[in-house]
Amino acid sequence: MFSRLTHAIPLAMPRPHFMGLAPLDVWARVLLAPAARVPVRYWLRLAAALATSALATVLTLPERLVLGPLLAWQGRRREWRLDLPVVVVLGYYRSGTTHLHYLLSCDPRFRTPAWCETLAPCGFAASWWFLRWFLVPFLSNTRPQDDVALGPEWPAEDDFALCNGAAASCLIGRMVAPSRHGHYERFHALDGLTAREFARWRRGQWAFLWKVAALSRGRELLLKSPSHTARVDHLLDLLGAENVRFVHIRRDAGAVVRSNVAMDGRMEPQLIQDAPGAAVSERWAREQLAATEEKYARTRGLIPAGRLCEITFDELVSRPVETVERVYSELGLELTRGARVRMGAYLESVRDYRAQSEPDARSKERTGSADEGEEPSRRGGATERRSGWVASLAGAGAAAAAAWVGLAWLMADRSDWLVWPVGVVLGVTAMRSGGRGSVRLGLFAAAATVLVMLAAAWPATLVAEYGPRNPNPLREQWHHVWLSTYRGLLAMNNVFWGFMGVVTAYRFGSRRHAAPPGRGGTISP
């Protein structure tokens, strides 16, 4: 019966959605203002996104209620302007902006928004910290459109914050509800907006940058969003011409359009409506690219001298070091030795990168032969590393189990939810001790999480129900402890916590790209 139904109405299966952490009121705007009809086959995908949205709404609500009045007061007092140094990467989608963004973010002088911040822009320090560690099960290790490394703490486009925090982004019409492309397209260049719509964008942009700056510890902000290329005039007004610097990167128009069409095709799992098709995507890309470059040409003259550097994609790829040196020189920035070292490490890490949409057989052969050639020389050290991460996992697991039982005694409760943070600890331990994540490390971390959960279940039940903080007499009721342990392990809520812990441990342990560009091989707390 069910198979016949799915055959008649092919269901769009749920995937981790980039709007999955947007609050419910933003989803209400997307679905109702203006109304966006969602075909039946997309209901399951939409329901999954709304379920995670409900959790994010609850998670960020306290900070939203506390910060909301403060931000409104501060924004009105400052006329919705910011007074802080900012570098903005400009360039249309698929022009090399992400590569340039990652490269510049290696410089510790910069603070760039992270994915855990842009995907949940209504939160702040507490919820962003939580999402940084507990968002891992819901994020891919690479971006779906081009296989570029991704993680909760990796540099992100701030336009996603405008999308998820205020529904003020063209991303909605392109990657969520194509039938409303014309409505949301106006947010790309901010032309044709009503006064209320423009105020929504400006206040959303101001509030998000205020939050990021508050956590920057005095560092200069580094922003990147393709739509900013068509917003130079508005950014100058928002940030102040004396504060903002721009780097514009340009790529061959034909390659940009082809790459955009391929990107739209790979982003189809994010849609809640039927895809417009390659022909429509190509027309949209050509029209928006032309309009963007025309708007940039009209507004670039507003940028003060010494505040703009223009480069090409080809020179960044062929001569990255020289190109970055020119960027720093033309913008009047100091390129320190530490930044050079970090940028060099990042460039080495992406030396053999190839997007799946652009396969290169020679690259695969080169990678394969390198692996085969290096394997014999690594066997000796592999044994030592294996014994090292096994010992680390064992030690971390024992400590986690002891801490779990201790908390159960203090709280007079089994606290089965602790398996989730245990999964974080064991996953990070496996990744750090192994030097780099892998499927094997992820599986071992997941198995260790299960063992800790089983090992802590009985003693946690014992101290919770019959410990010094609980007056219940133990006497001859050992069988009750075992029965309570058994029932607790099979309770649906505890099965959920166990699932989250195991998945989190696996995802951390299997992360090949452990840290953002220029920050070494592990995640720093």
Explain this structure to me?
The chain has 525 residues and is mainly alpha-helical. It contains 21 helices and five strands. It has a five-stranded parallel β-sheet, sandwiched between helices. The longest helix is centred in the C-terminal third of the chain and has 51 residues, at 361-411. The radius of gyration is 25 Å and the shape is globular. It starts with a helix and ends in a 16-residue tail after the last helix. 41% of the residues are buried. Mean pLDDT is 86; it is low at 355-384 and 521-525.
Q: Which sheet architecture does the biggest sheet show?
A: 5 strands, parallel
Physical arrangement of strands within the biggest beta sheet = 2-3-1-4-5
Low-confidence stretches: 355-384, 521-525
Give the distance, in angstroms, between the N- and C-terminal Cα atoms: 50 Å
In sequence order, what are the helices and strands, one letter per element?
A: HHHEHEHHHHHHEHEHHEHHHHHHHH
User: How many domains would you count in the coordinates?
Assistant: 2
Which of globular, elongated, flat, extended, rod-shaped describes the shape? globular
**CATH H-level superfamily title of the largest domain:** P-loop containing nucleotide triphosphate hydrolases
Going by CATH, the architecture of the largest domain would be 3-Layer(aba) Sandwich
Rg from alpha-carbon coordinates = 25 Å
The CATH topology of the largest domain corresponds to Rossmann fold
Number of strands: 5
What would you call the structural class? mainly alpha
